[in-house]
Amino acid sequence: MAQPERVRSAQYEEEPGVTRKHISLRAAAALAVAGLAVSACSTTQLGAAAITGDNRVTTATLTNEVANLTSAYEANQVKGIKPQRPVQQAAQQVLTWLILFRIYDKLAEQQHIFVTPAQANEQLRALGKVANQNKLTLNQYVSAAGAVPPNLVPQLGQYLAILSTLEARLNGGHPPTSASPQLADQVAHAQCLAAKDLAVQVNPQFGVFDYRTYAVVPAAPKLAADPVPSPTTSKPLVNPPC
Fold first, then answer.
1. Is 50 helix (H, G, I), strand (E, B) or coil?
2. pLDDT tens digits, one per residue of 31-79
3. Has residue 226 been placed in a domain?
């Protein structure tokens, strides 16, 4: 069986029928997010993997979704498709998405953004074309490239639709056709305000919440810490910078 092309998770090339106005400029980047970093808060409620405002992501939910991702990885492996993320960090990666979906629901509430199922499906169709260009199905693409459990694809579409709508609004009502540092900063600020309002807490068992990367990452071990930190690593930013 021929080896499928390597999944492109950070960027995608334009192709016939897939223009930037049809999919958020940050859609592929969203799939490349390594995971939300977690804050080691001792007040995390019992049985919660994370707390977002008045809601919890239960450890049972996280365990179930990690199992769904693992099943997707196993099905992908049969087809010769390898995951592009460290499989040992599946819990952090899945928890990242579960938190990010709630952050963008809050962002939509704050920004008075209302997206329809049709808008969400449009985003998924465009992402599906990117997957097809990689000779993958949508479910194979989002699991292998982005560590998204396939059963969460509808939530992914909702998230991308909110993000795309926000980008267009900040760009004068028109979908942006090129990357803009100013637009990226405005989106990041809105995302930060939403996360701050939710006062995101993550169970230290799963890592730390980093407002610099908006990803759940494993917490550094406290006992066997490297006395000479690597210059390429930095401590998670646990307080909202907005």
1. strand
2. 544 333 333 334 456 688 898 888 899 999 999 999 999 999 999 999 9
3. no
